[in-house]
Amino acid sequence: MNKRKLLAKAMNSPHNLGFPDFLALIEAFGFVLLRQRGSHHIFARPGLVEIMDVQPQGGKAKAYQVKQLIELVTRHGLTLEDQP
User: Fold this and answer.
1) Which CATH architecture has domain 3-76?
2) What is the pTM assigned to this prediction?
3) Interacting residues of 66 by C-beta distance below 8 A, sequence separation 6+
4) pLDDT tens digits, residue range 21-56?
């Protein structure tokens, strides 16, 4: 799915975003996976102190974590990286 469409879906319906789509969206904002232990995926972005620690819930992203990503993106003015 197009990254901009994923962002729109995350903003309009954070409780209905699949976990693989959520991971793709996190990476589209320049975050890189530091490590994974069990279901915990730890992401960081160069230049930011904050990290993203996300876990799936029944194959979907947790709504509060989707909202945290959107808030982090808004606060720091992050943009989607140019990806096909």
Assistant:
1) 2-Layer Sandwich (3.30)
2) 0.92
3) 10, 14, 15, 17, 22
4) 999 999 999 999 999 999 999 999 999 999 999 999
